[in-house]
Specification:
heterodimer; A: about 290 residues; mainly alpha; MetI-like fold; 2 domains; two-stranded antiparallel sheet; 13 helices; about 65% helix; about 5% strand; B: about 325 residues
Chain lengths: ~290, ~325
């Protein structure tokens, strides 16, 4: 038996090697990942860079150097009153759609967990099927729907569909399965709280980690969505930031690029403290 | 007993009430578009802004005309091949790195510090990507890998490995950069969810494995992965959805590539529907093919991760027993 168990010093040595490898790998990856941000800053404040196709599928990077580095006055000039219109549009779409997505997903997941109703199991199966079929498949029908009812250039058509996101419901359900307790619910009922109030005042705070995690992901995905918005929003005063920043239009003014980058970082910093960790997510109990 | 029943019924109505908003919006904004997309695939629907589909058999054409058209075009097959290739080539390295790092960083014995910082760093591309950073990420990657390929070639000239520029062509091609940038964009998501899943496993299971003398690899494959199955399912679904719907990164390289090396199914769909040809019907047929691919892959994933064989067996036995007792 004793030959199979490695001696203590050997294990320690192995642990040390593992530790060093992990640190080197993750720090290296972090540097590699954060480097492009410096490039982005250079693009905003310094050279203009773009990719040009070369012969045989290769690529060349073309740099158009600026004569002088951007002055502070020029930098402020980037944020003229016009550039705030796309920012406002993007904020309206992303903030409201994230809110609707999170709140109603939590509500749906709660309904699946707390109550026993006849169609519950069928509904849960339906959610699992629906989450495996992404909305992109149906985007053609969705765009036709907006054409048919003359909803082009309306922001709300991008907001409402976020209310029903099966992926978020599945995540919330996973979290609630692990944390929900019937006792709390019954105690609140005895105190005379209504069902809706129980959800808002007791269940939502319990689900805080799941909400924080999903807020980050929903906000980021809605913030950077390009494809459907660029087809539906044709009026320049209704376009979102991501459309201006997408590769299809000419290089956007630097201010727009900076505006595009900052809000998701703020959301992450605000929510990251509460990201789900250490909760038995749907794992096997006992 | 009867009182408890009626109480339960009294509350169960709230279950229905709470899911009403979800169901209504889902039916109008997700289910209807999906249904109409399926219908358009069998219709004639061309020209910009046309909202008047004509069912193919009713105008004297075979119902499979759109499918025949896209199956005949070479660019569709290229798009399908590229999409699957990009997806698999991105998935394998991404998962290996992400799960390995997540497993080590959550290891109780290794005690790696700074998990929050690494999380932020790894998730950073996704935070600012999509549009703004994607371009600069590409520029950076291209210059980085182009230079390392150059160095490799220079070394091999001295060393005589026999590497020629043709051997290294893949590493300077569009496909390679698309894969690398996709890995960088998605890696953080997988990492964060993997950590959430692993930290949710009760410490006792790891302790038990430790006492039994399991190595780290054994612990990972026998304890960690099986006990985070729902999370694994969630991560897989995200990877499938994002990977097969890939459009933003490949379209940075534009449509100038005549050999269609960067064409994905979503780009093909966009080209058919909104860029020039306005053939909504053909695009709908292409979406149906994409839907089919999704269903096949998701079916496999569901069967391997969530399908409970014992439970379905038990249900079958129950049914049989009920039938037997009824007879």
């Amino acid at each position: 038996m004793s030959t199979n168990i490695p001696s203590l010093s050997e294990t320690k040595k192995k642990d040390l090697i593992l530790k060093i490898v992990t640190y080197i790998l993750s720090i290296g990856l972090s540097i590699l990942i954060l480097m492009p941000f410096i490039f982005l800053m250079r693009e905003i404040f310094g050279d203009e860079t773009y990719i040009q196709p070369g012969p045989g599928g290769t690529f060349e990077i073309v740099r158009v150097p600026r004569k002088t580095l951007m002055t502070f006055k020029e930098f402020l000039g980037l944020f003229n009153s016009w550039s705030f219109i796309p920012l406002k549009n993007s904020l309206i779409v992303s903030v409201t759609s994230t809110f609707l997505n999170i709140y109603f997903s939590a509500l749906t997941a709660y309904a699946l967990t707390a109550y026993k109703w006849k169609l519950r199991e069928a509904f849960e199966k339906g959610i699992i099927i629906a989450m495996m079929i992404p909305t992109t498949v149906a985007s053609l029908g969705f765009i036709q729907l907006t054409y048919k009812f003359g909803l082009i250039n309306k922001l709300f058509i991008l907001i409402i569909p976020a209310l029903a996101t099966p992926l978020t419901v599945f995540f919330m359900r996973m979290y609630l399965k692990a944390t929900f307790s019937q006792e709390i619910l019954e105690a609140a009922r005895i105190d005379g709280a209504g069902e809706f109030r129980i959800f808002n005042q007791i269940m939502l705070p319990i689900m805080k980690p799941a909400i924080a995690t999903q807020t980050i992901f929903c906000f980021v995905s809605s913030w950077s969505e390009v494809w459907v918005p660029s087809i539906i929003l044709l009026d320049d005063n209704k376009k979102t930031l991501s459309i201006f920043n997408s590769a299809k239009v000419l290089a956007p003014p630097g201010g727009l690029e900076l505006m595009m980058v900052i809000p998701p970082i703020l959301v992450y910093v605000f929510c990251s403290k509460h990201i789900v960790e250490g909760v038995a997510l749907g794992s096997v109990k006992n | 007993m009867g009182k408890v029943r009626s109480l339960e019924r009294h509350y169960s109505k709230w279950g229905y009430i709470f899911v009403i908003p979800f169901v209504v919006v889902f039916l109008i904004f997700h289910f209807w578009p999906l249904g109409s997309t399926i219908y358009y695939a069998f219709c004639y629907l061309k020209h910009a802004g046309n909202t008047n589909p004509e069912f193919l058999p009713s105008i004297g054409q075979p119902w499979y005309k759109n499918f025949a058209e896209i199956f005949k075009s070479k660019s569709f097959w290229d798009a399908l091949k590229n999409t699957l290739f990009f997806w698999i080539a991105q998935l394998i390295p991404e998962w290996i790195i992400a799960f390995w790092l997540a497993a080590v960083m959550t290891d109780r014995r290794a005690k790696i510090k700074g998990r929050a910082i690494f999380k932020f760093a790894f998730f950073f591309p996704k935070l600012v990507a999509g549009t703004a950073l994607g371009g600069s990420l590409l520029v950076f990657m291209i210059s980085f890998f182009a230079s390392s390929v150059g160095i490799t070639l220079a070394i091999s000239e001295i060393d005589g490995f026999g590497l020629t520029p043709e051997n290294m062509e893949f590493f300077t091609s569009v496909r390679f950069f698309i894969i690398i940038v996709s890995i960088f964009l998605h890696f953080g998501i997988t990492f964060i969810y993997a950590i959430a899943g692993i930290t949710g496993i009760p410490v006792e299971s790891f302790e038990a494995a430790e006492i039994d003398g399991a190595t780290r690899t054994q612990t990972f494959f026998r304890v960690t992965l099986p006990s985070m199955k729902p999370m694994l399912f969630f991560i897989t679904v995200i990877t499938v959805v994002d990977g097969l719907g890939m459009i933003e990164i490949p379209s940075y390289f534009g449509s100038f590539d005549t050999l269609r090396r960067n064409l994905t199914l979503m780009m093909y769909l966009e080209n058919q529907a909104f860029m020039g040809s306005y053939a909504y019907d053909r695009a709908a047929a292409a979406s149906l093919v994409l839907l089919f691919v999704y269903i096949v892959i998701s079916g496999f994933v569901y069967y391997f991760l969530l399908y409970d064989k014992d439970e379905s067996k038990a249900k079958k036995l129950q049914k049989e027993a009920r039938r037997a007792s009824a007879e």
